[in-house]
Amino acid sequence: MTKKPKKRKKSEAPNSGLIDITQKKFRWSDYLAEKIIKGVAFLSITIIILIFIFVFRESLPIFASSKSLEHSEATSNTTEVQETYGEVTDQQPIVEEVQETYGEVTDQSDVQETYGEVRDTSSAKSQVESYVVSDGSGYDDNQSALKSLMSKDWYPVSEKPRFGLFSLIIGTFKITVISILFAAPLAILAAVYTASFAGKRLKEIIKPTIELLAGFPSVVIGFFALMVLATFLQEVFHYDTRLNSFVGGIAMGIAAIPIIFTITEDALTAVPKTFNEASLALGASKWQTAFFVILPAATPGIFAAILLGIGRVFGETMIALMATGNAAQMGMNPFESVRTLAATIGAEMAEVVFGDTHYNVLFLIGSLLFIFTFVINAIAEFYVKGKLMKRIQGK
Amino acid sequence: MIKSFKKNIKGILIEGLTLSSALIIIAIVVVMFTVILIGGKDQITWEFLTSFPEDGMTKGGIFPAIYGTALLVIIMSVAAVPFGTITAIYLTEYAKENSVIAKTIRFAVRTLAVIPSIIYGLFGLGFFIKFVGTQMDNAFLGGQLKWGQPNILWASLTMALLTLPVVIVSVEEALKTVPKDLRAASLALGATKWQTIWKVVIPGSISGIMTGTILAVSRAAGEVAPILFTGVAYYLATLPGSLSDQFMVLGYHIYVMSTQSANVDQTMPIQFGTTLVLLMLTFILNFTAIILRYRIRKKKTD
């Protein structure tokens, strides 16, 4: 009965002159609103693609062997930019620190031989001069710069610039390991506590506190690490360099705790209550249930939490700039200064000449960071979530 | 008896371990806050908040940095909130939950949230300044350099990209709390879909939009990396007057003062003072957002 009139309407409506009240009037405003909303919604996808394109585009010239014509035009553009940042360059202690380590590293490096160029510590001084006056004289041979990418020296502003990413990658890796070793156990155990043991009142203290920690600007954490944490840790552990990967790692761990905690807690509370009830009914105690039933059920979520924590630490710039000492060193000692990929971009981009090889290499580093975090997020998103859903739904 | 007692001890120890981790995290937050509060509280005076830096930044106040932060945050909100809200509306009202488009957009939003802030800075430099800015200069000013250099507009837009996911996520959460019945009732009365959204759904989720805005503002106020080379300046004698001016920001002020000033010890009180101002600002904003969100979630469960 109900189907019949509908059919008739469809067939008769166009022919008959009657107005069909069940059919909504076509409204331009509604149509436009929908189209605009849809268009805007695609913005976030567009932004991702644009970021991808533009960060890559600026790093491409390294791979092109010939100098592009843009350079000469572009350098004149950037002079003004340099002036505005000029003040910073003049009195920058970071540069001095880097300068010192340049010397140290050169002494023991065997890269000298590969390049057939003799360097001594005195050349470090000329580096700083060229740092300021650098007008792009170093980018003559992109080829050698490209080759040097895999070396371990990071001398972006010497006469023969070398862009060895290796020490930067090692540094970033070192910091990431330290901070995750510090943050992950704390955050995961705290999440287990809030999800399984905590009473309602304690929960209402712990969760907002961690949300507040998430709201701490990274520059504030960096400042705290630089002023207080570095001194405190030095007194406890008695090491030489005040700012090192250990201090930086702990500080970044503090920044990563909220992320790891929140995602782990979500994963733990997403485990169905029946798991909990079944385990308790079988005679397991509360902690046995928490550690042997709920925690294993949520492992994919915890894995995702750690991954995203790694992503956060990997790209953290301000804390790295302020608390790690910023010297590109290769050693495995956690109490040595390091320089991370992100901090390198942050410290050097403002002083670099637009279109220079150095500029392109910094964008290349940016591309690496982008790809890395993109992949990490994709793994956390698809692989882990799929697994988690399967496990919880018992398929 | 003994066995169960042992079991109990183990349980208490393990529970204690998890409890102490939670307490350590709380202690970290409390210590950080107290140290900065003690270090900076004597510095916070009306004069400090309203005067310019003097004597090569060793004396005076931080007014230009506060002003710059406020300006940055306002321009950022104007750009991020409408776009973020509209995206959230699309995701909840128009897109089908499991369609490829909705899934892709959600993935893009989450990716935007995890991209390191320094990458936004690079993007701002490569896209806004070197691409859009230079093109604008060539088109309108005949190659004269005005927009093709770091300024507050590009910095704010860069920041808006960074805060977009924050807005989208909180607005989406709020939109979902508007009951389906309300939508159905509105549609049944003959309202179109857009009228329903405009007159029923958006007013019903206004607190969610507020939360999103507040969270975005607090995020933007604290971020430094994206604006490092898209418009922030170390010191300016005048306040930014137009969109093509550079500006000062609290976070960058802290960074520069603590790592690059000639005499770090001498400016220590100013550094702590500035950090305290920034921290209080983000604290108040976050706290408001947390309370608002609690209310929204309560409404959902009621």
Radius of gyration of chain A: 28 Å
How do the strands line up in the largest sheet of chain A?
1-2
Secondary structure: number of strands of chain A: 2
Low-confidence stretches of chain B: none
Principal-axes shape call of chain B = globular
Q: What would you call the structural class of chain B?
A: mainly alpha
Mean pLDDT of chain A: 75
Q: State the name of the first-level CATH class of the domain at 166-393 in chain A.
A: Mainly Alpha
Provide an overview of this structure.
The complex is a heterodimer of chains A (395) and B (302). Chain A is built from 18 helices and 2 strands. Chain A is mainly alpha-helical and 395 residues long. A two-stranded antiparallel ribbon of chain A has the order 1-2. In chain A, α13 (273-281) packs antiparallel against α14 (286-297). The longest helix of chain A has 37 residues, at 357-393. Chain A is globular. The two termini of chain A are 42 Å apart. The model of chain A is unreliable at 1-16 and 65-140 (pLDDT under 50). Chain B is an all-alpha fold and 302 residues long. Chain B has a single domain, classed as MetI-like (MetI-like fold), CATH 1.10.3720. In chain B, strands 1-2 form a two-stranded antiparallel ribbon. In chain B, a hairpin with a 4-residue loop joins β1 and β2. The two termini of chain B are 46 Å apart. The mean pLDDT of chain B is 88. Chains A and B meet through α2, α3, α4, α9 and α10 of A and α1, α3, α4, α5 and α6 of B.
Provide a compact summary of the structure.
The complex is a heterodimer of chains A (395) and B (302). By secondary structure, chain A is mainly α. Helix content of chain A is 72%, strand content 1%.
